Amino acid sequence: RGHFKNVRGTLEFDPEAPQKSSVEAFLDAPRIWTGEAQRDDHLRSPDFLDAERHPLITFKGNDVQLGGPSEFTVTGDLTIRGVTHKAPLRVTYLGQWETPYWEDGVDKGPMARAGFTAQTILNRHDFGVSWQASLVRGGFVVGNDVLVTIDVEALWKG
To answer: Is this structure's pTM higher than 0.90?
Structure first.
């Protein structure tokens, strides 16, 4: 399992009308982190993310289909390694809450936040990620399908 650091983006969201939502997300491919430096370097290499040539992973979506009171699917353009495909994200809205907000050591008062979790399954070959190695006892190091889980805590600017 790996994580991306320095994820950023913009989300237009109204809990009363989620079908009007849109999202833009940007991930820095070189900032992948698995906790093992050698594996991280390999994931950044041309075998996987090719982070030197394609440093940015993007998702831009505004096709929202409702699935329940707090569940919906957002379909958008996902770009990895310079290759773009439509990708559906199954999203659950977790609600809103307030927390203290500090910036540069200054208490800015409470800040509203909204939480979401999302998942999708990607075929890595669709994005040109085809490296593979066999295991000694059979099977392969990497499967074709990759489960992507996204947890978001967004600052609410109402």
So the answer is: no
